[in-house]
Amino acid sequence: MERLFAVSHRGIGVDVSRGTVTLTGPVRDAALIPAAERRTRAVAGVVDVRCELTAPPEARTAPAPGRRTAP
């Protein structure tokens, strides 16, 4: 978790039961949520991931340059 959440990993909860990993807690950037889920699924022995991470509404990642967002 330290690598993925270099600054904000302290509030992240990780619980494992029978190969199912549950991630909980707040993150500073909403883009970290799917990244955390993907990385967790890639760990040997993980059979499922319950992702309950949250990000504040203002923590949305800016669109890529040249990409428009819906009004």
Task: Explain how this protein is built.
The model has no long low-confidence stretch (mean pLDDT 79). The protein is elongated and about 35 Å long. The longest helix has 10 residues, at 32-41. By secondary structure, it is α+β, with helices and mostly antiparallel strands. The termini are far apart. The chain has a three-stranded mixed sheet with strand order 1-2-3, covered by helices on one side. The chain has one helix and three strands.
Helicity range: 10-25%
Q: What's the arrangement of strands in the largest beta sheet?
A: 1-2-3
Strand content bin: 25-35%
Low-confidence stretches: none
Using the CA coordinates, give the radius of gyration. Answer: 14 Å
Structural class: alpha+beta
Q: How far do the termini sit from each other? A: 35 Å
Morphology = elongated
Main sheet makeup: 3 strands, mixed
The ordered H/E elements are: EEHE
Q: On the 0-100 scale, what is the average pLDDT? A: 79
The total beta strand count reads 3
Number of helices: 1
